[in-house]
Amino acid sequence: MAQTVLHKAATRGFADHGWLKSHHTFSFANYYNPERINFGALRVLNDDSVDGGRGFGEHPHDNMEIISIPLEGDLEHRDSMDNVAVIKNGDIQVMSAGTGIYHSEYNKAANSQVKFLQIWVFPNKRNVEPRYDQLTLQAEDRHNKLQQVLSPNPDDAGVWIHQDAWFNLGEFDKGITTEYKMHKPGQGVYVFVLKGDVNVNNVLLNTRDGLGIWDTDQFSITAETDAEFLLMEVPMEF
């Protein structure tokens, strides 16, 4: 019998720093909820909005897989590996922090917001050599079907990380249904709705709701309206 945990959008943690407004699905910074530390290897899911010209100054990370998915605007990235890049809606960025990395992320525009998802996944290997990658995705590849955007395999579709994780994006018209099959035993999927209403195994989710599902080999997902969503499959024990 599938197990589920539902996180409605309004129950997320929220931080208002003026220039930054951030919703936290899991405990982060000053938001702490002992029942919402992580979902398996998925540790952080932040829904961030950054004012024009502002951003996160240089700061360190280690031993974490960090994924950014821009939803609106342009995000400028700099790091201690001499990478300088801009990621925008339609792109995905990944960093393996490994032995240690410094980076900064800024809104490249002066007068408009940048909105993006910041996602952290615990790695399955510690102290790896830090690495950076980004990829521009093709929107038509997720229209009424699942588009793999991340996996453990450098030769597979999307970016890759040091973990048995698979991420998929979907942009479905109303009424479209698909089945999702777990890649391995002991995995779970966290469904995050970017826009619209979706039904996952008879649980209705609205915009920015999240649902974790595990102890099952597969599940169905139906768009009750035109909808966009992100599926994050991760090990439940790691």
UniProtKB/TrEMBL annotation:
<comment type="similarity">
    <text>Belongs to the pirin family.</text>
</comment>
<dbReference type="InterPro" id="IPR014710">
    <property type="entry name" value="RmlC-like_jellyroll"/>
</dbReference>
<dbReference type="Pfam" id="PF17954">
    <property type="entry name" value="Pirin_C_2"/>
</dbReference>
<keyword id="KW-0408">Iron</keyword>
<dbReference type="InterPro" id="IPR012093">
    <property type="entry name" value="Pirin"/>
</dbReference>
<dbReference type="InterPro" id="IPR011051">
    <property type="entry name" value="RmlC_Cupin_sf"/>
</dbReference>
<dbReference type="GO" id="GO:0046872">
    <property type="term" value="F:metal ion binding"/>
</dbReference>
<feature type="binding site">
    <location>
        <position position="59"/>
    </location>
    <ligand>
        <name>Fe cation</name>
    </ligand>
</feature>
<feature type="domain" description="Quercetin 2,3-dioxygenase C-terminal cupin">
    <location>
        <begin position="149"/>
        <end position="234"/>
    </location>
</feature>
<feature type="domain" description="Pirin N-terminal">
    <location>
        <begin position="12"/>
        <end position="121"/>
    </location>
</feature>
<protein>
    <submittedName>
        <fullName>Pirin family protein</fullName>
    </submittedName>
</protein>
<dbReference type="Pfam" id="PF02678">
    <property type="entry name" value="Pirin"/>
</dbReference>
<feature type="binding site">
    <location>
        <position position="103"/>
    </location>
    <ligand>
        <name>Fe cation</name>
    </ligand>
</feature>
<dbReference type="InterPro" id="IPR041602">
    <property type="entry name" value="Quercetinase_C"/>
</dbReference>
<feature type="binding site">
    <location>
        <position position="105"/>
    </location>
    <ligand>
        <name>Fe cation</name>
    </ligand>
</feature>
<dbReference type="InterPro" id="IPR003829">
    <property type="entry name" value="Pirin_N_dom"/>
</dbReference>
<feature type="binding site">
    <location>
        <position position="61"/>
    </location>
    <ligand>
        <name>Fe cation</name>
    </ligand>
</feature>
<keyword id="KW-0479">Metal-binding</keyword>
